[in-house]
Amino acid sequence: MKIIQILFLGLFLSLNLNAKVVTTTSTKSSTGEGTGLTREDAINNAIIEAIGKMSGVSINSLKKSNTNVSTDNKGTNIQDNYSEQISKATKGKADTYEINSVEQDANGKYVANVTIFKTTTTKKYQTPGLSADSRRSIVVFDSTPDPIKRGIGASLQQKIISDLLQSRKFNVLDRDSNGYYEMEKAIIKSSDTASDEIYKLKNILATDYILLFSISGLDGKQKTSNLTGKTKTEVEVVIDYRVLLFATRQIKFSNTLSMKVNLKDNSLSANESVLKQIANRISGDILNAIYPLKVASVENNEVVFSQSLNQGDTYECFSLGKVIKDAYTKENTARVETKTGNIEITRTNPKLSYAKIIEGSVKVGDICRPLNSGNNGNGYTIGRDANYKIEQGGGVNLGF
Fold first, then answer.
1. 206: which DSSP letter?
2. pTM of the predicted protein model
């Protein structure tokens, strides 16, 4: 127990090691030149020109515009209007300025050269762990219309999320826990919280993809062997799912899973095992569509992948060749694939998977696709009454 506690403590510390507020200070400078009848006027005009350069506005055009529209002959009114326009155009003043030179010409006018400085300090919360910039973001939603099936969908949703997280290919975003976030926001905004905690707000990621799945059919039946008397339960499930590109609402991927699985008993763990198999098929299908499995390394005739896979699964691998364009749209359709071999996953951990080469010669960069994806069968018999139910304790009984 102590060892487990130490491991959890170490994990917690490692996850929070880099969580901090980063302060960045930057200083901009700009040089301007101005003339005037007095030394002060020349310096002021030089400062105005420098501010105009820094803010990307034309001071001369402002002067001209002000002079043309003004009908007041009082210099103070003209100067007040001009100063107001400069303030609006530059959106702020410089912090400090330095006088580089002030000279008086033969006509008595002063010519000044100045440099102004504007210092800006910003703070930003640096999230712990790896940066989210290198991964695409995805949100998983259960769109099953039947309220009873939605109870099963909630369990399936969690398992799909777990699979996508373990793949280490996506930022998986949460959209179901808004009430908890609101409570934490209230604490951050309270007077009891350190001031820098406010920078944890306004960092929410928007998603790239939306994964929608819907349980359209679910049925379980029992078969008893005449020879042994043992009962075997067979579950049939049909799930429609699609991946939407949020920015354009394009459907980037769509499929229907029709799957049969066999159970040895009707326990909760058996039901959980069924849901895990279903989630694994859906998440694997999506990952293969968006991120085809790619060989990361080949060590001592062992193929290495940078994600967790199921031990015993087999794949066929291909090398990628020439890019093929669609004859009509001229878009890149795919690349020519040449089969390089078959592999079998022999061992796995949360970050890596290892496979032995069954045949052929697989190399780094080859893509691999499931070889036994159809072994679980398919098809769904329409017309049977669903006989599953939601247990009081929150579990799901698939009808047996």
1. P
2. 0.67
